[in-house]
């Protein structure tokens, strides 16, 4: 069962390991990122951030799609982490049983013209186009940094900003 897919450019960090994992009650994190899947040093660093009892699997985006479509994955409670909205769309096009689509932290590492949605979500025009596509696939897609924050529907934000 995929409890959530989160866009977070930091991938695994303290907030994911300690707050989101407990809130979602997960037993596994799937990092779907092509660069990280090819970088053993980055993989080791991410795995060290996770408390014991939570399994971490790092795959390319295509590999993660294949993994979560395996019937054995249905028995686990998973959080999928991606770095970009574009990668979230790639997964959302192939995976239909994601319970919560979360845009959490994206845009701080990008050097380009961006539109600020929240303190933690700043998107380029290309990422806004991806967000619109994601909202069509998952209308309940929400902007939410931490579980205690209010879930703001991405569709409402797009509408308010006339995007």
Layout of strands and helices, then pairs:
Elements: E1 2-8, H1 14-24, E2 28-32, H2 34-37, H3 40-48, E3 55-59, H4 61-69, E4 78-82, H5 85-94, E5 101-105, E6 115-116, E7 122-123, H6 125-137, E8 142-143, E9 152-153, H7 154-160
Parallel strand pairs: 1-4, 1-5, 2-3, 2-4, 5-8
Antiparallel strand pairs: 6-7, 8-9
N- to C-terminal distance? 33 Å
The helix tally amounts to: 7
For the largest sheet, list the strands in their spatial order: 3-2-4-1-5-8-9
Shape label = globular
How many whole angstroms does the radius of gyration measure? Answer: 15 Å
Poorly predicted sequence stretches spanning 5 or more consecutive residues: none
Order of helices and strands: EHEHHEHEHEEEHEEH
What is the averaged pLDDT score? Answer: 96
- What's the helical proportion of residues? 25-40%
Describe the structure.
It contains 7 helices and 9 strands, in the order βαβααβαβαβββαββα. The N and C termini lie far apart (33 Å). Strands 3-2-4-1-5-8-9 form a 7-stranded mixed β-sheet. The protein has a two-stranded antiparallel ribbon with strand order 6-7. The chain is an alpha/beta fold and 163 residues long. Strand 6 (115-116) and strand 7 (122-123) form a beta hairpin. The longest helix has 13 residues, at 125-137. The model has no long low-confidence stretch (mean pLDDT 96). The chain is globular, with a radius of gyration of 15 Å.
């Amino acid at each position: 069962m995929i409890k959530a897919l989160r866009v977070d450019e930091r991938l695994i960090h303290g907030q994911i390991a300690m707050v989101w994992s407990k809130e979602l009650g997960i037993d596994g994190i799937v990092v779907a990122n092509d660069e990280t899947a090819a970088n053993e040093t980055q993989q080791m660093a991410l795995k060290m951030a996770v408390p014991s009892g939570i399994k971490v699997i790092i795959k390319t985006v295509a590999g993660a799609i294949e993994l979560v479509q395996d019937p054995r994955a249905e028995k686990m409670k998973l959080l999928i982490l991606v770095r970009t909205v574009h990668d979230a769309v790639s997964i959302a096009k192939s995976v239909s049983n994601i319970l919560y689509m979360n845009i959490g932290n994206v845009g701080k590492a990008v050097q380009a013209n961006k539109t600020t949605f929240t303190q933690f979500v700043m998107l380029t025009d290309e990422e806004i186009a991806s967000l619109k596509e994601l909202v069509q696939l998952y209308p309940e897609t929400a902007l939410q940094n931490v579980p205690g924050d209010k879930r703001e529907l991405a569709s409402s934000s797009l509408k308010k900003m006339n995007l």
